[in-house]
């Protein structure tokens, strides 16, 4: 894409940029002079000011932008005051972005009169997928006329050059090019990645790299020259606003400051390199341009002096601002949900029982009929086969390929894009094809999804549903049989459901939809169709459309005989998923002596029910399909021991699969690894005789 070099930028805009550059320079200087006060790690934008301001000046209040941690000049250009940025620098209570929880220049904003900013993390390049999700969401909103805009919104995703080598960035480029999304990928290339040079890190710059993504337009610009940068970004923004296509802008910049306050330039750069970069200081280049255009030098000196005074004043004010109160540390782990009680008809009018997979299809169908903001995507979920387990069958045909569609094999994109989709008001329901393949998406799940609400101080909860077929049966083998709930349960800020029957599945899916937080639905493949012997009771009468089952409500599915309990002859099994059916079958061998709780959700957990029933029986076993060592089940057993210690007649135990790296494909070996009713019966007999 070529830039029209004949165009000129008005002197008013040039002076505005010079002022912002002097503010940025003054902030860097003041922070450096007060290193003992600026104790938290931070970066500044020195050397990058021109391209950042040129970008900021193009944006409207309906646009979205993801600045990265060096983009303070972009924030200044968008309209944020130095004082607001300093509140984050010093981690103060009134930090408008995170409430004192995140680093400097890690913004998130819903300010009405400014471009919107989703939660920004420090993980290099990880903003690419969530921000592309914003662009994906805006395209969807416009296609279905869900919202009116004054102008077509533009999305900007900003990076440093070395982040482009991240695989997840390529996933974002691929998806943006494939679906022609309205996004600008702005790459600021200063030739350094901390101490790693461009020669050590990459074979090409971002401009050449982008050539491999057919449909991704591209542009190069000198990012130290404000006028050239302004014209380039004006053209790029206008292109995306009008054509609704993606573009990558590769801007060459310089690094005048430190990588961060913690990794200082003198650690790894020599004077020759620093001198080369200082020669292209954007502030000096713009100063020279203004003087050549006849601007009075005294005016420029006054601008610089005023900027320094403003920064000093704001810095002192920020120092005096209050720190966060200790009692606020647990605020915003989750957004409040209105779904707290079971409502609606659990047994509908049709007496015929349905399988679990149909319960999910019907729930999603009812949601999508009622809510145009709901959409479903993942691998192979589209109309042709409707999921490899037929778990989305008919939905593609009923709702069309813009609401139910296939994605590339991109687990990170599938999960991470929900951040951006949710931010613009949509409710994405996405699927990872097998639990074993969730690992490429774990980075997005931990770094972006789970932390968004907490680190944005409640502004950006991620409202999504992530469906994950899970579990072993019938020789699925080592890459299609895994259980992953312990890994997921260790992530703070997400909710996890694990239904064991059709009615629970439908009710929990409805609760998940109306919950403003991220939800993972773990769906046992062996229960989908009740094909595994002994799982017939996973079929239930289908609940009505109005049925909702809240999270955190366990179910007492078999209660022990009270007479046996009074004699001290009973025990409690706590389980979920396939464990329910092993427990039911084993309990038949101990009439009236075994009580079973179906947790139904792992986060939140119905601790009240668990502790109450454990105290009654004095003996408790936590049963899981997972490999037992260091598992969710073992951790729960420990919590039960701690909270019910005085009531126990025997140690709380946990039972699960053998501690093997994977589920072997051979059916004999699979059976040997997994729990079953026979093995559980032996364990129950052992515990009841203690």
TrEMBL record:
Its job: E1 component of the 2-oxoglutarate dehydrogenase (OGDH) complex which catalyzes the decarboxylation of 2-oxoglutarate, the first step in the conversion of 2-oxoglutarate to succinyl-CoA and CO(2).
Concerning Gene3D superfamilies, the annotation shows:
3.40.50.920, 3.40.50.970
What this protein needs as a cofactor is:
thiamine diphosphate
Q: Where, by residue number, does the polypeptide cross the bilayer?
A: none
Q: Which Pfam families match?
A: E1_dh (PF00676), Transket_pyr (PF02779), Transketolase_C (PF02780)
Protein origin, superkingdom: Bacteria
Tell me which residues make up the Transketolase-like pyrimidine-binding domain: 354-530
Q: Which GO terms describe its molecular function?
A: branched-chain 2-oxo acid dehydrogenase activity
The protein here is known as: 3-methyl-2-oxobutanoate dehydrogenase (2-methylpropanoyl-transferring)
Record EC number: 1.2.4.4
What top-tier enzyme class does this entry carry?
A: oxidoreductase
Q: What biological processes does GO assign it?
A: branched-chain amino acid catabolic process; response to nutrient
Alphabetized InterPro entries for the sequence: DH_E1, THDP-binding, Transketo_C/PFOR_II, Transketolase-like_Pyr-bd, Transketolase_C
Which controlled-vocabulary keywords does the entry list?
A: Oxidoreductase, Thiamine pyrophosphate
